[in-house]
Amino acid sequence: MGVFLLAVFIPEDKISEIKNIVDIVDIISDIVLLKKVGRNYVGLCPFHTEKTPSFTVSPEKQIFYCFGCGTGGNVFNFLMKHDGLSFFETAKMLADRYGVEIPAQTMSPEQKRRISERESLLATNKQAMDCFKHSLLSDTIGKIALEYLKKREIEKETITKFNLGFAPSGWDNLINYFSKKNISHELVEKSGLIIKRKSKSGFYDRFRDRIIFPIFDVSKQVIGFGGRVMDDSLPKYLNSPETSVYNKSRSLYGLHIAKEHCRASETVYIVEGYFDLLALHQHGILNSVATLGTSLTQEHVQLLRGFVGKNGGFILVYDSDEAGIKAAERSIKVFDKAYVNAQILVLPEGYDPDSYLFKFGYESFMNEALKAKSIILFLIESAVKKHGLSIEGKIRIISDLKHPLAHINDSVKRSLYIKELAEIIGIDEPAILEKVRTLSGNKSIKANKELSGKMPDRNLTLKGDRLERKIIAMMLQFPEILPEIISRNILDHFEDESLKLIGQLVLKQGEHEEVRDELHDVSTRGNGMVSDIINSIDDREKRSIVASLSVAPLSIGEDKWGREGCLKLLSQFELFRKRQKKTLLQKIKAAEECNDHELLSELLKEKQIQVSKGTKLRVYSKISSQNWR
């Protein structure tokens, strides 16, 4: 929804205030590792999987664009797509972050309801965290829980840093807590903290007699909770259900603390348990996160790649038991699709990261990390250890490894691993290759079909005449040429309707920029124009075209647009269209001479369309030219 329609809900001056105060590089850097290249920043796109960075952020224009998948826009569009928020929710979140007050009376009832529910859930989670923390630190209620944490060698600083808490035994502690605050049970139920009774009316607490681990998003908002029993009761761990603010396949425990350390080290350690993660952080391994009761997902890897970069290292610290081996097998497909080279750190048998660190310490753990193996080599060694090298054992090893090998999309990498396996177990390569080839061939076909179905049609962003696209790029990047565009009626001769519409929006926004320049420093002209244009466009395709052309590189050897080069491009375009028109007239004349009435009718229609387009646009251009002057 464009800025002008949104004015019904948020005053346009408030949107402008948010846009002017927000730094898109600052916002996107929370999610993507960006590196400065010239005037722009580049990184790995968070919206599709890629090997090399094609995601560009322009601080000058306050926009982003991915040359790989064609996604682009301003800071609002980025957060809406990445976090699945509405425009209003995005604007409200940015306003809260930067201290911009949005008048409540401008909200529609539906907007009020949606934003209110999200904010209410986050506020409810925050209050629940405070309640759990208070219970833990209470001399009477939390004594047993504190003793348990002390026994596990968790220090007070770690308890404070991660906001650990305690849910006492009993069925209604949290219900009573929120009742005293006059917060409805229905809202608390939506947060997943309480559960509706099946047999009779009322609710009961989800978390009872457990250590509580609040789960934060990258913005440090409490989105959910994990709970662990202090004895052998089952289930050992219990997590919040998925809610409108919590998605476990996109969330990682400890990421709000680890993200900056992942950036600095370009490495991330991934563990499976809450206490494993606390142990790593307590021993100074701050670039570490934990999955939340689920397998590592492609969303997790995509998120982490944004922090560690394209060459960043992923080290999975899994147990060497059967569950750890299966987890490693599952992760191959995820990592290979994300073009990530991950390694497995296998600790000595009987130890997990938590117990190993507290017994042997940081230095010993890091020495073990140096021995980390690639996932395939880990699986090969595990299979050999499990089945042995008898004839039957070798058959089982190949059976265990054919699927993991088939999931490797890179044929060279797959071939090298097959060679390694063949040497280790003493089997000819062709025999193993034959087992894998059928599976990998089918997987490749399936993967290609999936890819073609999910990737956007790049023809949408690349369509249109090359010269027309270059002229729009010039208008966006060198707004000083706009009066020349108007006086020469350049848009009259555009054939691509999308590009023509964008050109009209640029001219219209250019008028606003000129008025602004009369009141402010002219040197800033155009800096916010592109973001304003994107705000005024409903269509995602057209927004991406604007973003693309705003950051499109110039011709080879050119550093920036200059007036002489711009005038040369306009003259080239005018000459091209004149030749095109002349060719059309020649075709009409030839059709008349040949008495080809059918062809003549089609050519005359084409000519009439060109005349009609030119007449409509000249009316707009004339008005714009008068306003411009």
Task: Provide a compact summary of the structure.
By secondary structure, this protein is α+β, with helices and mostly antiparallel strands. Helices cover 57% and strands 10% of the residues. Strands 1-2-3-4-5 form a 5-stranded antiparallel sheet. The chain has a 5-stranded mixed sheet with strand order 13-12-14-15-16, sandwiched between helices.
Category by helix and strand content: alpha+beta
Largest sheet: 5 strands, antiparallel
Number of helices: 27
Number of strand segments: 16
User: Average pLDDT value?
Assistant: 82
Principal-axis shape equals globular
- Poorly predicted parts: 1-8, 442-464, 517-526, 615-629
In total, how many domains does the architecture comprise?
5
Distance between the first and last residues' Cα:
31 Å
| DSSP helix fraction | 55-70%
> How much β-strand is present in the residues?
5-15%
Structure description:
The protein is built from 27 helices and 16 strands. By secondary structure, the chain is an alpha+beta fold. The protein folds into 5 domains: 3-107, Alpha-Beta Complex (DNA Primase, Chain A); 111-246, DNA primase DNAg catalytic core, N-terminal domain, CATH 3.90.980; 247-362, Dna Topoisomerase Vi A Subunit, Chain: A, domain 2, CATH 3.40.1360; 372-456; 460-628. The strands form 4 sheets. A 5-stranded antiparallel beta sheet has the order 1-2-3-4-5. A 5-stranded mixed beta sheet has the order 13-12-14-15-16, sandwiched between helices. A 4-stranded antiparallel beta sheet has the order 6-9-10-11, covered by helices on one side. Strand 12 (267-271), helix 12 and strand 13 form a beta-alpha-beta unit. The model is unreliable at 1-8, 442-464, 517-526 and 615-629 (pLDDT under 50).
